[in-house]
Write a sequence for this structure.
């Protein structure tokens, strides 16, 4: 099954206002991690170029990142911002320019792979932030989880299915490999049993899962991967040689963040956080990582 990028774009365009209010971007643990990474890597007087791929209108990223660096007296010389949603890019550019007197603020609306090819800056230090599957499928079924968020309204779709997160199987999203499928209406009829089944299946997956949402017509409109922390760390190491990069993993709340820094002077920082990476198809995730090794 192929994920229609046009439908994905339309999905984010329609929800730009929701994200502009930050009601779906309450991932504070990730922001704490980004702040810690900045304090580990840079000092007052340093100069940086900032790149953000997929930024939920810039309310958290890159605005939070720029504010953090500015408070550290690190000079942000330029910002390159990208999102698949044209609506989100317009809002982000407005928010960024209203807050910061940056002379060099560039945007690119569209596919993340094209954005990487367009960006003149090398990635520098890459901060890759995704969702921890433990927050989707906690061991205790009475604990509130991301599944409860999915199933409490139709903001993200009217039905959901999950597949194993498998980077070795090019056909992992075929219909015969659906692990679990349920509409919000069906789920609510027998919530406890449906949740238990979902959690049991997720907890058996060694790498993580991909969640797909569907609209009332049965079309896939949203995808989100949830990762085991060991899998994410090993994935980063499989693309970025530890001879050339220092790789470190952080965990807080529902967030997993890997920082991938070249073993040389770092004048650029690139973020792909808030599970932007996890919203991509598996084959696209692999191509993105390959492109980012150029720095």
């Amino acid at each position: 099954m192929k994920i229609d990028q046009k439908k994905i774009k339309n999905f984010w365009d329609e929800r730009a206002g929701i994200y502009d209010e930050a009601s779906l971007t309450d991932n504070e643990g990730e922001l704490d991690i980004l702040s810690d990474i900045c304090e580990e890597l840079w000092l007052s007087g340093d100069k940086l170029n900032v790149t953000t791929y997929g930024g939920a209108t810039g309310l958290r990223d890159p605005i939070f990142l720029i504010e953090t660096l500015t408070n550290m007296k690190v000079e942000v010389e330029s910002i390159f911002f990208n999102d698949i949603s044209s609506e989100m890019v317009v809002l982000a550019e407005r928010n960024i320019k209203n807050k910061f007197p940056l002379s060099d603020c560039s945007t690119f609306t569209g596919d993340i792979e094209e954005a990487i090819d367009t960006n003149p800056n090398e990635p520098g230090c890459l901060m890759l932030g995704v969702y921890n599957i433990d927050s989707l499928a906690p061991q205790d079924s009475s604990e509130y989880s991301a599944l409860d968020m999915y199933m409490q309204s139709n903001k993200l779709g009217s039905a959901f299915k999950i597949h194993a997160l498998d980077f070795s199987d090019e056909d992992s999203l075929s219909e015969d490999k659906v692990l679990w499928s349920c509409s919000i209406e069906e789920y609510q009829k027998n919530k406890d049993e449906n949740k238990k089944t979902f959690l049991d299946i997720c907890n058996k997956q060694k790498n993580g899962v991909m969640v797909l949402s569907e609209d009332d017509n049965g079309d896939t409109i949203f995808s989100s991967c949830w990762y085991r922390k060991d899998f994410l760390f090993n994935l980063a190491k499989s693309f970025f040689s530890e001879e050339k990069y220092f790789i470190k993993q952080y965990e807080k709340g529902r967030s997993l963040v890997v920082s991938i820094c070249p073993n040389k002077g770092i004048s650029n920082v690139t973020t792909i956080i808030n599970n932007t990476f996890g919203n991509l198809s598996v084959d696209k995730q692999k191509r993105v990582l390959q492109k980012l090794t150029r720095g």
Remarks:
- The chain has a mean pLDDT of 86.
